[in-house]
Amino acid sequence: MNMAFQADQKIKSDILRGLSTEQLFRLLSDSDVNVLMKTLGLLRNLLSTRPHIDQIMSTHGKQIMQAVTFILEGEHNIEVKEQTLCILANIADGTSAKDLIMTNDDILQKIKYYVVSHKPVSWHRFGNVICHFFKVDLRTG
Predict the structure, then answer these.
(1) Which key words are in the record (predicted)?
(2) Global confidence as pTM
(3) So what CATH class is 9-134?
C-alpha cells in the first residue's frame, strides 16, 4: 500500500502537488519494474472514488492518458499491463473522466487489442475495465 490508499481529496492533491506530475511521469518511465509498479499503484490509488477521479482527471487527464497509452504500447511484463488496465477501470468509474477514455480512439484501440489478442492478461481485471465502461455488475448481470 501507499499513502494515497483511501486518502481524502486534500491528501491526494498534496501528493500530486508535492511529487509533481512531471516527476510522477518520470517514474512511469523508469526501467526498474519495481519503481514502475509502485508508481502505477500510487496512480491507481490516487484515482479512486468517483469525485476524486473526476477532479484529478479534470486537471491531469491529458497527461495521465498519455502515460497509460505509453505503458500499454511499451514492452512491459503482464503485471505492468494489468496494473495499467486497473487504472483504466478506475478512470472509467469516474462520471466525467470516463469520457476521456470513450473519446480517445488510441485507448479504445488498445482495449480492443486486449479483447481480441488473447494476450495473457488477467481476465478478471480486464473484465472490471469492461464492466466500468458499461456499468455492469458481474454479481448481478
Answers:
(1) Cytoplasm, Nucleus, Repeat
(2) 0.81
(3) mainly alpha
